[in-house]
Amino acid sequence: MILGAAGLLPLILALFIRLAAGADPDSPLPGMIGGLALAYAAMILSFLGGIWWGIASARASATEQPRLLVIAVVPSILALLLYGLSADFPVACSTLLGLVIALTPLVDRGLAAKALVPGWWMNLRLPLSLALGALTIGLGFALV
């Protein structure tokens, strides 16, 4: 849980820098840090898809595996699309990215119901996904 919570630090730091930079709106630093933070959130979403791929590959039955592998590819596609459009539509893209991240525990809940993940999995995934989702949405509004 400590390592997972440490993964929230880039978004927390980016929000702090963005909000603290209100005194100097001409500074390029908040925008640059915000862009990096959105890229980080997109990478985390893509990483989750990789975790799901690994779980499906290693633990799913032959009948479950194809559906889970398709689901596992979706996060990377959404992450690329939303991050790619974020320069033109920062609030919309960060909001959608944050919502997608916040909804990822729904897939994890299905994996847990099929006993494909450890018993502690949801205790880690749910709070981290909700926190990262909320921070990502907040960052988008702070970048405007």
UniProtKB/TrEMBL annotation:
<feature type="transmembrane region" description="Helical">
    <location>
        <begin position="32"/>
        <end position="56"/>
    </location>
</feature>
<keyword id="KW-1133">Transmembrane helix</keyword>
<dbReference type="Pfam" id="PF11911">
    <property type="entry name" value="DUF3429"/>
</dbReference>
<dbReference type="InterPro" id="IPR021836">
    <property type="entry name" value="DUF3429"/>
</dbReference>
<feature type="transmembrane region" description="Helical">
    <location>
        <begin position="68"/>
        <end position="85"/>
    </location>
</feature>
<feature type="transmembrane region" description="Helical">
    <location>
        <begin position="124"/>
        <end position="143"/>
    </location>
</feature>
<keyword id="KW-0812">Transmembrane</keyword>
<protein>
    <submittedName>
        <fullName>DUF3429 domain-containing protein</fullName>
    </submittedName>
</protein>
<keyword id="KW-0472">Membrane</keyword>
